[in-house]
Write a structure and sequence with these properties.
- This protein has three helices and four strands; from the N terminus they run βαβαβαβ.
- By secondary structure, the protein is α+β, with helices and mostly antiparallel strands.
- Helix 2 crosses helix 3.
- The longest helix has 16 residues.
Amino acid sequence: MQDFPRIPLALLSTPIQKLENISRLLNTNVYIKRDDLTGIGLDGNKVRKLEFLLADAKRKGAEVVFTTGGAQSNHAMLTAACAKKLGMEPILILKKRGVTERKGN
């Protein structure tokens, strides 16, 4: 992975936290990986992928980023946030399906 251009966007490494109450109820240790603490939005795996995709785009001189998804797309929201953080202009092409009114993302 070190051979690929990457721009750090996420706060890594995300912590792993023991869920005490559920562990006690199930009589076993239950842990959760806190990707909600990456610093951008609520998703770690998409941000980690965008670190590579947007680094490649910047290296190639891109100033505008296009992406597509549903009206409530987490991918589109995170792409826009990361692109803006890097000084790039995001353009989202959102499909009219599912929830389309202004809720959530």
